[in-house]
Structures are given as structure tokens and as C-alpha cells.
Amino acid sequence: MSDEIEVTVELKKPLDKMTAKELRDVIINQMPMIAGASAMGKDELVAKIKEVLGITGEGPKVSPYKAQICSIKAKAKELRAKKVELAASGSRGDVEILRRKINKLKKRTRRLAAV
Q1: What is the pTM of this model?
Q2: Which of 39, 77, 102, 107 has the most beta carbons within 10 angstroms of its beta carbon?
Q3: Could you give the CA distance from residue 101 to residue 97 in angstroms, rounded to a whole number?
Q4: 52 and 96: one domain?
Q5: Separation CA 25–CA 55 (nearest Å)
Q6: For 57, phi and psi rounded to 5 degrees?
Q7: Is residue 115 within 8 Å of 63, Cβ to Cβ?
Q8: Residue 50 has what pLDDT?
Q9: Which of 59, 80, 97 is the last residue of a domain?
Q10: Of 55, 57, 56, which Cα lies nearest the Cα of 7?
Q11: Residue span of the structural domain in which 2 resides
Q12: Which residues make Cβ contacts (< 8 Å) with residue 1, sequence separation at least 6?
């Protein structure tokens, strides 16, 4: 593509969230300069659209809470090991308490990852 053509595309949702069929429709209707869209897979379609639009390939986003999530998961792993030991000894009350703590930690990691 030696000649630069200004292309504006109207998207209803992010490229990565679109299906291959939706991406093909966008290419066929709004980007006729891309040939062979019907034979391409989703990854190829997204790459071609980004290339034409001039979107640089940004890597995957890393959560700003990554270290905190890792420490919470390590703590949950320790509690699981302790829970197995207590289950073998037969103290149901303590096992139930640990199960709840592990559950809360898992919920916290999911909330942090969603932010």
C-alpha cells in the first residue's frame, strides 16, 4: 500500500470483541482495499484492520494490582494446604472457617482483576 488513504471506520464495539463475521462485514463494506477477507480467520482480520487503521500492536494490559493479586493467591494456597491438614484431623469448624476465608480471598482477586 504505497498510497496512503485516510480511512474512517465506525465500530459498534472493540475489534477484539467482534466476531469473525462482523469483522468481514466491516472489511467488505468499509475497507475495500483489503482483499481476501472471506478466507481469513479472526486473528488475521483484526491484524489487517489494525494495519490499515494504523493502530500499533499494544501488548496485553497488565493489571496495576498484579502484585497484590499474586500475594492474595499465595495466601489462599497456604490456607488450602492448612485446610487439608485440618480436614485430616477431623475439626469441621476450623475447616469451615478456612473455606470461608479462601472464598473471600478468591472474590477479592476477581474484583481486583476486573478493575
Answers
A1: 0.49
A2: 102
A3: 6
A4: no
A5: 19
A6: -75, 90
A7: yes
A8: 85
A9: 59
A10: 55
A11: 1-59
A12: 33, 52
Evaluate whether 79 touches 101 at the Cβ level (below 8 Å). Answer: yes
* 75-114 pLDDT per residue, tens: 999 999 999 999 998 889 999 999 999 999 999 999 998 8
DSSP 14-66: -GGGS-HHHHHHHHHHH-TT---GGG--HHHHHHHHHHHHT-----PPPPTTH
106: which residues sit within 8 A by CB, 6+ positions away? 76
12 with 35, same domain: the answer is yes
Q: Which three cell numbers stand for residue 80?
A: 488450602
13/68 Cα distance (integer angstroms): 31
Domain count across the chain: 2
Q: Are residues 44 and 86 in the same domain?
A: no
Task: From 59, 78, 94, give the residue that closes a domain.
Answer: 59
**Residues in the chain, how many?**
115
